[in-house]
């Protein structure tokens, strides 16, 4: 079962364990003639990279992407694009001690229940290391979306524990290690993270992601809705426990007269819907938000059981990432981009290259 | 593109427009030998049925399910099961007036942008009428899940606008038209709904759904996670704008030491995870929640545009359902059941009929 | 598992047993705006219909197609198109006697081994009755292929037992009940069939199918090749035991210097390849051929076993179709058309509406 | 579109160009706990390897398989298994001259028409080099099939041009470079091949493949039939132009009374069906045959056109493989094995681990 593949037409299959020899992906269905070179992956992989600041896990990867296939003389050929990254910083010893126990709140236990195998290599397949390849694949998706449709996909950290932004500026987002949209708060975030690290604990976060210039008509009712696919895409990111489109849970207490986005000849009056109605894009920005739990890999001992069926206390030694939500921002952008390119191709398959050209609201 | 199909191994394909001649579905991959008869569909279809009380839309359907194939002498044969319901109450005239305009907040506009077709028949394919077949298909899924694994799936209304339950009792849920878990509040809900109807407006809601006795090991990393598939399934329900698993957005402000579910020899100490870790079931109850927006079909005029590109005011005449969230409860149960049976079959495909029999926490 | 669905983007799901209440299909992914009405199905269903002459099984169907969804005011809407045909001529009594036995060479035995169910209703799902819906679905596919690309798909009977055509004329094919391309031989075929019927035996056949005006570039390497999909499509037809593309098995004894189709500025010098190279269409006619076995439903007693595990002799009473290959001709056309429309949509998904416009050989 | 993936539940995705940096595959859905090590791939890769004798193309590969993921301590973990082979013998210069022309009978032309890209690296993706990964993936499939079900899959060369076997002995097959089942003919084959090489031409071939101990019940009607999937699998092999199951095209001239396989209490009296009825295995050996065309890469000049639209004569320099059918034998075995393991998993998904245990014919 291709459960490690994402997308129906722009299909990304990832493989690899956090501390195995390598991670990689195969991208099948990419349109031919798109210019791609190995340097194109650098920027987004650096944004995602752990160890980019003292506020994220200290693992340091070279993360050099090798293009194994599907690109000839700098252009995609239409055949499968395989990308490979060797794991240079395995440090499996960090994990040696806990190979016989299950960390509470971690996938150790469920993988073992499902497969009967305990692969302790840095969480094996369940590690966030896998998301590196989502970001790499999305570099290609973003490039096609931008060149062909002018679509841009951007994310930011919208909450860190109980700290919320007190202002918003897209330019600020890329200028601090938190992807935080309000520069003035960065010192406070640094302070909060230092305290958190000292406590050995972790905290949750909220990440928002927005796609602009998405044309109307993308998304396929009923079980291939754009919002349904986005929900699956974001929920598939490690530690995500909730997903919202537009006003999300805020819509519960709204009245229909408030929530509906009225239409005027010069455009929509609001975007409570988050750019999607009936599972199809409206032409407004597509807006999604996700909640990330605090990681279970913390320094505070926790009650658990081991393979021998004994009660034990567990401490996760080694790297400690007090807020995994911070580096989830580029991953959320990646998943949004992968959903959008897939629907762009699905739309033109059924409705043609230009879709069904209707007069559109500005 | 099979965008009207749900599930990889227990595959449900639905068809039909709200006011077309019929709606139906085809279920492919159902295990053979399961006892099914037309009477089995009655109870859940009645629970979902509009018009079950004065608090939901007044459309009254016979909703008689005809089994067209896949069942012989009362048992599933392993071949496709087709179910058909004739639309007996079409009343298309209700919609005649708005065939040239777009209702703000409704899928009219996006369907027209995507397909270039304006099918006004009761919202056509985008109507909640389609969910009738999800409930019908889930009757079969629930029966197999219960008989083979003892799995039960139950839902309830967890918020109506700004009214939240002040107590919880599963027995109460089926004894009021709101699927509300606290009987004492029912008169207040009646009052609130009457006021809402009088105002011609609508309100949002929250529905929770819980599956019990789900064995550990169901769910497939990375892009076929149980929570990822649940998120897509619930988000595909009309009007849903947000989905949570376990503590959901509440996890943002939690610490890792609070959120992680510690394990003892007599079981888990808590269920913040909602029964899923790393995309795989833990053996605890699977808990999900969803937010429904207030319907855009209200009696209060709204600004919009028409096919001629003119500014217009729109009022949705005809049936008026002030809180679509109420009857979304059985639909949420249905989607949870369809996800679970699909993963039950996917698990035994890869890991065998009994899965990988590990010692399990009680 | 959607094993009753055909096609990745133009997806046809069929359901129904030969002698159940109805057969039908759901077509998902059809481009919007295509003109379709119920009368469009008549011609091809009549061509396929059993009982069109005394040389095929005497079952007489009304085969009235009802369009249940997906078409509004005579045009496809882009939503699923459901087609339904009620079974009016069930005559299950014919089959009553053999419900406890297995007919040698028939799927009775394997369905029972797989599903543990013995559904005797006219062969249940394994009956050629199912192919009626393939022909119906292909009516829509053929119409789109013709209107958008000028593609035509035609088939003929290329061998009946040991009788081969002694001439070829497309015009003759539709003017005799055998789809035979040489009118002068029709009396001889009539005579052979009468003798065969008298003997109570059956004979095999070969059917050829040709698609013209297929543009170059359709087909997806490696596992979605046009010829690979055609092979699966034709092999899925009841009684088919062999499939060839172009010269097929004749290529075994050829030299490379004979087989290769040389290219000149005014086009290809030959078409040994059958219009496909590397799984992708060349722009020449796509040519396929299939072998059909003689049906096992004959009047000559055969040794078999029964459900009680006893040795028995079996005679298939009731309808007797001495050469099922005759009416397989429209079914082969249907499968070719379904493969081509699927690849047309797949090609434009990846490569755009016009494909990659290269200078093409005339 | 995952057109480079094969299999629904045991899914193999291949990537790589003949003369790119590497080829590889990702296997998703493999059951956990299967013992696999890198040495397991050696035997079958050597059997397939080009250059194993002077009668096949002289390219010599190291073909060292590296397992990148999905195996821990010598056992499959249930996560994706990635296999990688570096291309050590690229010799692209061989192909330099023809980068501007199209070889008649080769996929050069169709790939360029589809994708607009001319990737001359040894035929790029269309090269038989890709089949190396099918053989590697099938090593895992064969091991599981043998260990769990005792299934064996074996192939042999059944015709070389107009030379057919004059005797049959499975033991002989692995003792000559032709996979020929009759040792006495080997000198004659050597002579024929030498003459063919001297002539600079090529010839076609027939390969047969047989699977034994396949239990009854594998295969899914209607569009997932075992024979339908086998037909697609074999037709997807480079140069294959025809596929037969059981008697194949021989069934055309048979009578029903000859073709049907009568059943006795001690088993089937014959196997004209090739072990499949109604798309489902009968429990008899599954028998398939395929026709391979003579390769178009020959030393005899041929008329063609070039990218500039000029008439040219083409000679394929470099390696010359006068009968590609010889080394197609292990590839045919591989595709049969991949189809069987996929259906084994699909069967237990729907019908359970032991299937539906019926009394079976010996």
From TrEMBL, chains A, B, C, D:
Binding note for cofactor: Reduced FMN (FMNH(2)).
Pathway recorded for this protein: Metabolic intermediate biosynthesis; chorismate biosynthesis; chorismate from D-erythrose 4-phosphate and phosphoenolpyruvate: step 7/7
Source domain of life: Bacteria
Keyword hit for RNA-binding: no
Reactions this protein catalyses: 5-O-(1-carboxyvinyl)-3-phosphoshikimate = chorismate + phosphate
Cofactors: FMNH2
Enzyme class name: lyase
Sorted UniProt keywords: Amino-acid biosynthesis, Aromatic amino acid biosynthesis, FAD, Flavoprotein, FMN, Lyase, NADP
Positions with a binding annotation for NADP(+): 48, 54
Listed GO CC annotations: cytosol
Record-listed FMN binding positions: 125-127, 238-239, 278, 293-297, 319
Amino-acid biosynthesis in keyword set: yes
Protein name: Chorismate synthase
Organism: Dyella soli
Lineage: Bacteria, Pseudomonadati, Pseudomonadota, Gammaproteobacteria, Lysobacterales
């Amino acid at each position: 079962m291709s459960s490690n593949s994402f997308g129906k037409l722009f299909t990304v299959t990832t493989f690899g364990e956090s501390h195995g020899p390598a991670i990689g992906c195969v991208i099948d269905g990419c349109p031919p003639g798109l210019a791609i070179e190995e340097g194109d992956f650098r920027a987004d992989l650096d944004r995602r990279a752990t160890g980019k600041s003292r506020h994220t896990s200290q693992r340091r990867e070279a993360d050099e992407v090798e293009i194994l296939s599907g690109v000839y003389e700098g252009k995609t050929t239409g055949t499968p694009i395989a990308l490979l990254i060797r794991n240079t910083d395995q440090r499996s010893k960090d994990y040696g001690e806990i190979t016989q126990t299950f960390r509470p709140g971690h996938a150790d236990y469920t993988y073992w229940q499902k497969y009967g195998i305990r692969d302790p290599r840095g969480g094996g397949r369940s590690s966030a290391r896998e998301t590196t390849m989502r970001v790499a694949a999305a570099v290609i998706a973003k490039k096609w979306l931008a060149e062909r449709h002018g679509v841009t996909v951007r994310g930011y950290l919208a909450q860190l524990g109980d700290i919320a932004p007190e202002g918003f500026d897209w330019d600020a987002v890329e200028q601090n290690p938190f992807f935080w949209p309000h520069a003035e708060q960065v010192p406070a975030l640094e302070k909060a993270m230092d305290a958190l690290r000292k406590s050995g604990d972790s905290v949750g976060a909220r990440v928002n992601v927005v796609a602009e210039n998405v044309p109307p008509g993308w998304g396929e009712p009923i079980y291939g809705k754009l919002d349904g696919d986005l929900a699956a895409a974001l929920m598939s990111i490690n530690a995500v426990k909730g997903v919202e489109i537009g006003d999300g849970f805020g819509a519960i207490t709204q009245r229909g007269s408030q929530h509906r986005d009225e239409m005027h000849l010069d455009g929509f009056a609001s975007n409570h819907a988050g750019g999607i109605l009936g599972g199809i894009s409206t032409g407004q920005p597509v807006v999604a938000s996700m909640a990330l739990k605090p990681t279970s890999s913390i320094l505070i001992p926790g009650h658990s059981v081991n393979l021998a069926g004994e009660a034990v206390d567990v401490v996760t030694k080694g790297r400690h990432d007090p807020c995994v939500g911070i580096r989830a921002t580029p991953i959320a952008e990646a998943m949004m981009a992968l959903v959008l390119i897939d629907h762009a191709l699905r739309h033109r398959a059924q409705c043609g290259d230009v879709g069904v050209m209707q007069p559109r609201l500005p």
